[in-house]
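User: C-alpha cells for both sequences below?

Assistant:
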Amino acid sequence: MNVIDSCWRTRSNWATNRRALADCVVGFGKAAIGGKYGAIYVVTNPYDDPINPAPGTLRYGVIQTSPLWIIFARDMVITLKNELIVNSFKTIDGRGAKVEIAYGPCITVQGVTNVIIHGISIHDCKPGKAGMVRSSPTHVGKREGCDGDAISIFASSNIWVDHCYLARSADGLIDVIRASTAVTISNNYFTQHDKVMLLGHSDKFTADKVMKVTVAFNRFGEGLIERMPRVRIGYAHVANNRYDEWKMYAIGGSANPTIFSEGNYFIAPDNSASKEVTKREASNWRNWTWQSSKDVFKNGAYFVPSGYGSCAPRYTRAQSFKAAPGYMVPALTSDAGPLRCLVGKAC
C-alpha cells in the first residue's frame, strides 16, 4: 500500500473510527481536517432541493456552519438539481456504501477551507443553470450557473480529494483555481474524459502564484485526452501516478508554472505523434522549471525537462512523503478509486 492507505486501511475498526482518516493525508493538503472535530451526519435520502434542503439529504449536511463528518446510510445515486456548495470543515465519506453524484451539476468548493471528499463516484456532471442555491443555513444566493466540473475548487485551501472515481463531465474533472492552495489529490481513478485537471485560473491571474498542489497515487485510466494536470503560474508535485494513456499529452502548462514529476509510470499511446508526456502552451518556456525524477517511461513515452536548479517540493516535515521509484507505481495505484469497505473488516 502507498503511504496514505497504509495509515488507515489495515484497521478493521474504520467504521467506528472514521475520523482517523483525516490524519492520513500527505503533501500540500496535509492540514485538511475536514469535519474531524464535528458530529457524524448520516445521509439517508438521495433527494435534492437547492434552496430548502431537507434534513437527511447531502445538501443539508454540506451547507451547515459547524464541522460535520458526512456518511451514507446505504448505496445511493444523487442527481443534484444545482451545484452542491460545500461549507468549511466538512468531510464527505462514502466508505461502506456505493455513492454516486451523477447526471446533474456536481461539487463546488468555493471560498472555504478544510474539506475532505473521499470514496465517492462523481461522473456525467452537467452544467448548472442560473438560479438560487443555498450555501449556508442563513444564506441563499443567486448563482450564475456552473460549468459542469466534477469538483471545482475555487479560492479555497486545505482540501483533500481521495479515492474518488471521476469521469465523463461537461467541463473538467477537477479544477483548482482562483488562488486555491494547500490541496492534495490522491488515489483517484480518472477515465473517459477530455480536459482532466486544471490547476490555475488563467494565464493572467497572478494570484495563483500561491497555489501548491500535490497529485499523488492516482490512476489516469483509459479514454483521457489531456490535462493530467495542466498547470498555470503555481506549483505542482506530481508523484507516483499511473498514466494508462493520453490522446494529446499528460502534463502541460502555461504562464511559467513549476512542475516536479517524480516516480510516475507513463504508458504512451500508440500514436507516434503523441509520445511526449509534456506540452507547453508558449514559445518562451526554456526557463520554466519542469523536472522529472524516478519516472518510468513505457511505449516510447518521454518527458522534456526545462529550467535549472531543484524544484523538489519544499514540504514541511508533516507534509513530507518519500515518492517511490516509478516501477512500483502499478502496485501503489492498484486500488485507486472508491474502495469496497465492509464494516468490521480492513478495507
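Moving on to the next sequence.
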Amino acid sequence: MWICGLNGKSGFSARSTAEQVTKGVDGKGLVAIVTGSSNGIGIETARVLALRGVHVIMGVRNCKAGEKVKEAILKKIPGAKIDVMEIDLNTFASIRKFAAAFIATGLPLNILVNNAGIMSPPFTLSKDGIEQQFAVNHLGPFLLTNLLLDTMKTTARNCGKEGRIVNIGSELHKFGYKEGIRFDKINDKDSYVPNSAYGQSKLCNTLHCLELTRQFKEEGVNITANSLHPGLIATNISQNSGILGCFMGCTQFLLKNIPQGSSTTCYLALNPKVDGVSGEYFADNNMSKASKMGRDSELAKKLWEFSLTFTETK
C-alpha cells in the first residue's frame, strides 16, 4: 500500500515528491508543454520542470489563471522560463490554434505532458458534438500530439536527445465499460455511466501510448510515450465523480498530496532511469501493469484509426 512508502526498483515510492524524483536532473535547453497546468498536479508539474531548468509552456483554458500561476512560480524561481498559452481540449479548433501558435514560435519541443482532463460529469457533448470525457480526455490529447509530432521528431533528431510524451491515465482504466471501448456507443446518452466513461477515456490514454510506441519503433524515432496513474489526489478533478468523489472526500488521510501526485509525471518527463522505456504504464514512480485491454496492441491500432475519423473531419 502506498502509505507504507516502500521504494520500488526505481528507488522511489508513492511517497516520493516531484522534486525528489528529479533531483540532480539538468533540464536546461529542454522545452516542455504541460496542459492543464493552472490546476492541481499540473501546477506542480510545471513548477518542478521549470525548477530543473526546462522552458515550460503552460497550456491552459484560462490565461488569467495561468498568468497568476506563472507569477507565483517566478517569485520562487526568478530565472524560470515559462510562457502561458490558451488551449481548450473541449474543442478541436482551440487545439489546432494552440498547436499552430506554438509551431509559429519556432521553439523545439522535447516533452509533451498531456495532463488536462475531466472526471465523471453528467452526460455532456463537447463543442464538436462528442461525449465530453472521450473528447477531452482522449481525442484532445490525441489531436494535440499528432499536430506536434513533426516538431518533436525534428527536435529529437536535431538535438540528439530523447523526446518524451507523458499521458496522465488512471488505475480506473481497469474499471470502465466491460467491453473496454464502446466504439459504436460513444455518444449513447441512455447507456452512459459517468465513472465507466471516465475509465474508458483513461484506457484510451494508455492505448494511445502503446500505438505511438509501435509507430516510433517502426520509424526509428527517438521519442518515448508512457502513461501513468498519479494516485488518489485531493484535487478538483473529482468534483463530479459521485460516489468516488465522496469516497475521496471521506478518506483524505489516505490521499496523496500534490507534490506526491505529480511525481510520476515528472519522473517520466525527466528522469534518466526511464531512457528508452516506452509503451509502458507507471504508478508510484515505478513501472506497473496496465489491464489486459490496456496492453492489447490490436485494440490500440483500432482506437488510433477510430480517433482519426473524428479529428481529421472536424
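User: Anything stand out in the second?

Assistant: The mean pLDDT is 94.
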